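User: Reviewer 2 asked us to show a designed sequence for the structure in our supplementary figure. I'm pasting the structure tokens here. Could you produce the per-position amino acids so we can include them in the response letter?
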């Protein structure tokens, strides 16, 4: 079940502040409050999906395409393609997901090595 009181739902409703770096009709991208890299941005869906797993099971093809296009448009807005970046999405308890609203971490700004945890 989706919890409409999660932190990212509150950011979408403008009940909490965020430093936005990209927005369109389908996604909002903003700076992570505890950055794990020089550039650490979260891209969230504007729809009520609790995780990548929920989204993949329940979203239609158009929603899936529009979300991932939003991730890439955020990458373009941040001009990350040349130097590279990492995408991470944590799912559920073992995945270490803290906020139950679909989001992708974009990490960049330095060589990130081979360890894949955020
Ligand atoms: P996850 O473990 O994948 O659910 O990651 C949640 C992320 O949200 C963490 O990296 C937090 O630092 C970040 N976060 C939590 N609250 C906020 C907030 N109010 N604004 C920006 N980022 C946040």
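Assistant: Here is a per-position design you can include in the supplement:
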């Amino acid at each position: 079940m989706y919890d409409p009181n999660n932190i990212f739902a509150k950011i979408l409703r403008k009940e909490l502040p965020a430093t936005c770096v990209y927005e369109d009709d389908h996604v909002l991208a903003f700076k992570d409050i505890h950055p794990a890299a020089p550039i650490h941005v979260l891209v969230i869906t504007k729809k009520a999906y609790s995780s990548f797993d929920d989204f993949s099971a329940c979203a239609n093809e158009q929603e899936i395409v529009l979300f991932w296009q939003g991730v890439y448009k955020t990458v373009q807005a941040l001009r990350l393609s040349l130097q590279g970046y990492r995408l991470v999405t944590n799912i559920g308890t073992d995945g270490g997901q803290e906020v139950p609203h679909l989001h992708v971490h974009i990490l960049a700004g330095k060589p990130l090595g081979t360890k894949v945890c955020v």
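For the response letter, you might also mention the following. The domain at 7-108 is CATH 3.30.428.10 (HIT family, subunit A). The chain has one domain: 7-108.
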